Amino acid sequence: MTTVFDFSAEDAKGDNVALENFRGKVLLIVNTASKCGFTPQYEGLQKLFDEKREKGFVVLAFPSNDFMGQEPGTPEEIRTFCTERYAVEFPLFEKVRTQAGDGQSPVYALLGRSTGALPAWNFAKYLVGR
Asked: Which residues are catalytic?
């Protein structure tokens, strides 16, 4: 059976990250956007990460431009925005396509098959793990 831990994804710095590195942790996978009314959720996500990371909790942010073009930036622009505006320290990945079709992220394809639902908007969350 395929799990999210079987995939890898490029982070916002362009490095390939094996999601296997997060096996045994609780993952909160979130599709994010910098120009959305929900963007201030970055602050709460960082706070949650700070409070729970010692217990094996990790937020994995996957920026997406799927909804009304609300994530137009380059990976560098997105990373700079997140770190300077919200002091994000949790893993931030390259921009992905969350919706079904050509170019859909394999992580989101699996999440959609496993839960029966793909994100309906930015900042949809999937809890994976323990």
From this structure: 36
